[in-house]
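We were asked to recover a plausible sequence for a given structure. The inputs and outputs are reproduced exactly as logged, with field labels preserved.

PROBLEM: sequence recovery
POSITIONS: 119
GIVEN STRUCTURE:
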């Protein structure tokens, strides 16, 4: 079970940007597919983006063209750059290890970080 710690959430106005970070504890990080999910109260946790060990990426249609996932294997960290944010992007964002870059999660989750998009 890999330990994951997210950071970077906060309050931002519509049209603004945030960058989320997720630091992993495992030395095997570089071989893992990693990704981000998000969840609003009362709804299921939804896939947002994934990246494999080669750096190939995949996105949910709702964020394609606005969000970018990346990784730094030396720092054992995965990032989610979120641009042109919309109120409907408001959610708790979770970092996870993925089975493939398209999901699903292997079940290793971070604690989550709140993103609120509001004027």
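RECOVERED SEQUENCE:
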């Amino acid at each position: 079970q890999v330990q994951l710690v997210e950071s970077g959430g906060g309050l931002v106005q519509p049209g603004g940007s945030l960058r989320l970070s997720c630091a992993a504890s495992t030395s095997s990080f570089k071989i893992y597919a990693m990704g981000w999910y998000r969840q609003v109260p009362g709804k299921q946790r939804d896939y947002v983006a994934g990246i494999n060990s080669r750096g190939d990426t995949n996105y949910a249609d709702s964020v394609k063209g606005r969000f970018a996932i990346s990784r730094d294997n030396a720092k054992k960290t995965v990032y989610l750059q979120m641009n042109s944010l919309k109120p409907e992007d408001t959610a708790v964002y979770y970092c996870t290890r993925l089975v493939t870059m398209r999901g699903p999660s292997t079940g290793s989750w971070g604690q989550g970080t709140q993103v609120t998009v509001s004027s």
